[in-house]
Amino acid sequence: MADWRWTPQQRLRWIEENLELGITSFDHADIYGGYQVEDLFGEALAMQPGLRNRLQLVGKCGIRLVSPARPGTWVKHYDTSAAHVRASVDASLAALRTDHLDLLLIHRPDALLDAEELAGTFQALRREGKVVHFGVSNFTPLQFQLLHRRCPLVTNQVELSPLHLEPLHDGTLDQCQDFGLRPMVWSPLAGGRLFLGDDADARRVREVMEALAAELDVTMATLAFAWAMRHPSRPVPIVGSRRIDIARDAVSALALKLDAQQWYRIWQAGAGREVD
Q: What region does 192 belong to: left with phi over 0, alpha with psi -120 to 50, or beta?
């Protein structure tokens, strides 16, 4: 998301630059920036309201932070109750200056999640025209299935990078492929650790990726995005950076198809071993 220190005009230009690159989905969560980022984005978007028809707004809710912006919360926890989800959606719509979200995700699995209640809340929000599609974030395959059986979901947003391989092997991406749903991928650059991490795993992966990026004549960021998108579930990576050059790297990755050996060369570096 654009830097909160930018002026509204700078934030608007950042939105426009992404749209010019063909990036039309903007991923939000109510808690980002201490419950401020949605309002900052909405303020910029309100300067050119016609852009709303050219983009998709993704919202997330379900995490409650201890924050001056939410004085009623005194312990960080998860909340997927009908009252909280409805209040979160209404707050996001107001902050983003829009009448609907294109996609709403439950941000984290809630141990107290009542699948019947939440499915009913989703269906009501759809009937009211406030949310078009629903999904989840960071759910295990069984948690996903529990809710998906009651209200069709369109995605599971999970962490995936050469430094975080778990979704490849715990059934998460297999389930997405089985259901024909495209997962969303957060932190495909490992939060910058691919470039700056000083731990042994990061250094090992970086050495391999730098060599392969040179062979392919692409940036390491483009290679990382292409590696994530190579999976047959067709993941959609979230750029997660305010730098427009990283967005360009992500778009360039659409034209880079790694072969199996190139892909597994990176996997091996991340796993620290050969395949069994």
A: left
pTM above 0.85, yes or no: yes
E-strand ranges in 89-214 read 101-106, 131-137, 156-159, 184-186
Task: Please say if 32 is a catalytic residue.
Answer: yes
Residue 226 sits at φ, ψ, to 5 deg, of: -65, -35
- Specify the pairing of strand 77-78 against strand 63-64: antiparallel
DSSP 236: E
Catalytic residue among 32, 35, 78, 264: 32
Structural domain containing residue 67: 1-154
pLDDT in tens, 4-49: 678 999 999 999 999 999 999 999 999 999 999 999 999 999 999 9
Is residue 175 assigned to a domain?
A: no
Are 146 and 224 contained in the same domain?
no
Number of domains in the chain: 2
